[in-house]
C-alpha cells in the first residue's frame, strides 16, 4: 500500500503536462470529507490516505504519494437531489428561499446559478416540493459549499488554474446606523398570490 499525506488544492503551481499524466482517483463526497481512508487509483494501486484532520478533498485537487507520484482527484458521480425553480409558476427567488431554509438545517448544499444539489432525503424533498420547487434525482458530482470561513473565503470549488483572493472592506460600504430614536423601516411582504399549477409544472 502506498501512503499519501499531501494535498495540493486544485493542483495549483503544477504544470498542466504533469496533471495530464497523473493517475486519477474517483471519490464520492462522503469519502472526500474524511482525512483517513483507503482507495484504489486508476493504475490499480492501493492507497492509504493520511491527511491533516479536518481536511476536505475536492474534485480537481491533487494528492501526492510518498513516492512523489501525483493523483488527480475526480468527484465521483453519486445520487443527489437537484432542485430547480418552476419555470411556469415560480422564479429564481424560490431557490434563494430554499437555500435559506436548507442552510438553517445545516444541510450540505451545492449552489449553482439555476439549481441546488443536496444528498437524497425524502423529508427535505417533500418540504421543497411544498415550496413549489421541482425536485428530481440524478447521478452527478457533488461539491457542496465549504462555508464562508473556509480557506480562501470561498465555498465554491475553483477549476484548476483559477485561483483568486479578495480583500473586502465591507465597513467602507456599510450604511450609516440610524439616529437614536428614529424608527427603522420594516419591509412588509405583500400577500402571496394564489399558486395555480399547470399540467407541465411537474410537482
TrEMBL record:
GO molecular function, one term: unfolded protein binding
NCBIfam families tied to this protein: PRK13261.1-1 (NF009751), PRK13263.1 (NF009762)
Name of protein: Urease accessory protein UreE
SMART domains in the record: UreE_N
Record's keyword terms, sorted: Chaperone, Cytoplasm, Nickel
Keyword Chaperone (UniProt): yes
Location(s), subcellular: Cytoplasm
Family under the similarity heading: Belongs to the UreE family.
Transmembrane segments: none
Organismal lineage: Bacteria, Pseudomonadati, Pseudomonadota, Betaproteobacteria, Burkholderiales
Any Gene Ontology biological process: protein folding
Compositionally biased spans, kind Basic and acidic residues: 162-173
Region spans: Disordered: 148-203
All copies of domain UreE urease accessory N-terminal, residue ranges: 7-71
GO cellular component annotations of the record: cytoplasm
Its job: Involved in urease metallocenter assembly. Binds nickel. Probably functions as a nickel donor during metallocenter assembly.
